[in-house]
Design a protein that fits this description.
21% strand; alpha/beta; 13 strands; 367 residues; four-stranded mixed sheet; 11 helices; single chain; binds coenzyme A; Peroxisomal Thiolase, Chain A, domain 1; five-stranded mixed sheet
Length: 367
């Protein structure tokens, strides 16, 4: 039987600081009603620590779930567009912290498509026999690049991390097919010019260049088209049809994008997993966090056909068709937590608000 890469462990890190739509109403001219209707988002969780800290915790949880030691790993890959530093990579720092002394490590940036791109890379490594046990993490600290008076962008994004362990299987389960694509010519629709989430906004940076630049409507259209076409291609490559799919786990960009894209595919309702209401768009972290939540909710069973599909900055897109393997319950649990904080979202965002204040000097104060 063909050797495939199958997911044997999963875990997530949801940071502790909540940013609700009611909180956003205090920061910008918006409303809970508008945000829920246009995006499906009610809340986001923000981090008081670095991308690496969230990635490490999600990684430890995924390893415990798989019943593996860090020394069992031969590769650590972190998908992120908000690394703590450019060099060393987040993956190298996580490799050191968890003690994965036998593993290679690198970061991969395909923005919101990062976990799908990462899955294709690690699946290829495992299938070919170049790697046996691989840890893939999607981790993002997106709030550092947000101007919380820009209502067209800041309402959408949250922070977090999700992880998966991949191991070989010859039982028919694992990654069945991959579809990846990019259109760099449209890269200007989603831009973060500055790098390194450790370098929080500081007077040395130009606010206009630093904040996320985002063309919401253009992205919306490209995303619906990109996701539905890519998912259709991956199904064809796997020799499957929409009827064969038990669950689609899409990148959680916007509930309306997910609805439109999956309706085009002919897959709706209970066969689509959505958790955007509580977490917002967490870029590369959204799919692995959604996989964890779907398993916790009993929405994935052994033998299920699962499709992962994403769209993001670059622009990039991609889809994975996989058959879920034997494990649907964790072997073990890692009970570590992030360090506690008593900050609320307004404390956490004060630096951002101060940094971008100059861009909004002529605007009336928020009521
Ligand atoms: C950003 C997004 C939610 C905006 O929704 P939209 O329906 O396209 O809204 P528009 O930009 O057309 O704006 C419509 C109106 O609402 C206003 N508006 C925009 N954001 C608002 C907000 N947060 N609250 C209230 N009103 C808002 C606009 O100013 C505009 O008002 P006007 O008609 O008086 O000019 C939507 O375009 C989107 O989700 N895009 C893709 C997002 C995404 O997830 N991308 C990442 C992919 S990885």
């Amino acid at each position: 039987m063909t050797r495939r890469a199958t997911i044997t462990g999963w875990g997530k890190c949801v940071p502790p600081v909540s940013l609700s739509n009611a909180d956003l109403e205090r920061l910008m001219d918006t409303s809970d009603e508008w945000i829920v209707e246009r995006t499906g988002i009610r809340n986001r969780q923000l981090t008081h620590v670095e991308t690496t800290d969230m990635a490490e915790l999600a990684a430890r949880r995924a390893l415990a779930c798989a019943g593996l030691e860090a020394t069992d790993l031969d590769l650590v890959v972190i998908a992120t567009c908000t690394p703590e530093l450019l060099c060393p990579s987040v993956a190298a720092m996580v490799q050191d912290r968890i003690g994965a002394t036998n593993a290679a490590a690198f970061d991969l940036n395909a923005a919101c498509s990062g976990f799908v791109y990462g899955t294709s890379v690690v699946a290829g490594m495992v299938e070919s026999g170049f790697a046996e046990r691989v840890l893939l993490v999607g981790a993002e600290k997106l709030h550092y690049a947000m101007d919380y008076r820009d209502r067209g962008t800041a309402i959408l994004f949250g922070d977090g991390a999700g992880a998966a362990v991949f191991e070989p299987s010859t039982d028919g389960d694992g990654v069945l097919a991959v579809d990846l694509g990019a259109d760099g010519g449209k890269g200007g629709t989603m831009l973060i010019r500055s790098m390194g989430s450790q370098g929080e906004p500081s007077p040395a940076n130009d606010p206009e260049a630093f904040r996320l630049h985002f063309e919401g409507q253009a992205v919306f259209k490209i995303a619906v088209q990109g996701i539905s076409a890519s998912a259709a291609r991956v199904l064809e490559r796997a020799g499957l049809t929409a009827d064969d799919v038990d669950l689609v786990v899409p990148h959680q960009a916007n509930a309306r994008i997910i609805d439109s894209a999956t309706r085009r595919l002919g897959i709706e309702g209970e066969r689509v997993f959505v958790n955007i209401d509580g977490l917002g768009n967490t870029a590369a972290a959204s799919i692995p966090m959604a996989i964890s939540d779907a398993l916790d909710a009993g929405r994935i069973s052994t033998g299920d056909t699962v499709v992962l599909t994403a769209f993001g900055g670059g622009v990039t897109w991609g889809s994975i068709a996989l058959q879920w393997g034997a494990r649907t319950e964790p072997v073990g649990v890692h009970d570590g937590e992030l360090p506690p904080t008593d900050m609320d979202c307004f404390d956490l965002l004060q630096d951002n608000l101060d940094f971008y204040a100059g861009l909004h000097a002529d605007e009336p104060p928020v009521a």
